[in-house]
């Protein structure tokens, strides 16, 4: 399973998500598998339906260690990157980050990509 995790601000649109996703996908190397799921925190799942992939709700991302760190994310959600933490949590135990967070052109959304075995 390949999961695109998202974090986004309240003003984000479907285009914000698509932009962040495209930027993250441009950095996938040596991965022939397609993205199979998208994920974010439970309160933000509705906007993900615009991406036409199965959406996974992550109840909490607090405490999940991420390689990048947004001070705003750390204060608001207890993790350095909601996108990275959501991707890792949705990928399940043993999941690994393939692509760290990338920011959309309008700077309202981030996307990271993880690989895991669970669905």
TrEMBL record:
<dbReference type="GO" id="GO:0008168">
    <property type="term" value="F:methyltransferase activity"/>
</dbReference>
<dbReference type="Pfam" id="PF01890">
    <property type="entry name" value="CbiG_C"/>
</dbReference>
<dbReference type="InterPro" id="IPR002750">
    <property type="entry name" value="CobE/GbiG_C"/>
</dbReference>
<dbReference type="InterPro" id="IPR036518">
    <property type="entry name" value="CobE/GbiG_C_sf"/>
</dbReference>
<dbReference type="GO" id="GO:0009236">
    <property type="term" value="P:cobalamin biosynthetic process"/>
</dbReference>
<protein>
    <submittedName>
        <fullName>Precorrin methylase</fullName>
    </submittedName>
</protein>
<keyword id="KW-0808">Transferase</keyword>
<feature type="domain" description="CobE/GbiG C-terminal">
    <location>
        <begin position="2"/>
        <end position="114"/>
    </location>
</feature>
<keyword id="KW-0489">Methyltransferase</keyword>
<dbReference type="GO" id="GO:0032259">
    <property type="term" value="P:methylation"/>
</dbReference>
């Amino acid at each position: 399973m390949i999961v695109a995790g998202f974090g986004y601000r309240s003003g984000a649109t479907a285009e914000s998500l698509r932009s962040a996703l495209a930027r993250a996908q441009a950095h996938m190397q040596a991965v022939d598998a397609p993205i199979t799921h998208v994920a974010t925190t439970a309160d933000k799942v509705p906007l993900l339906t615009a991406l036409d992939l199965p959406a996974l709700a992550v109840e909490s991302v607090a405490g999940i260690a991420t390689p990048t760190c947004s001070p705003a994310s750390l204060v608001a959600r207890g993790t350095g990157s909601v996108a990275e933490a959501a991707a890792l949590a949705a990928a399940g135990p043993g999941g690994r980050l393939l692509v760290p967070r990338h920011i959309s052109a309008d700077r309202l959304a981030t996307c990271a990509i993880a690989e895991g075995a669970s669905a």
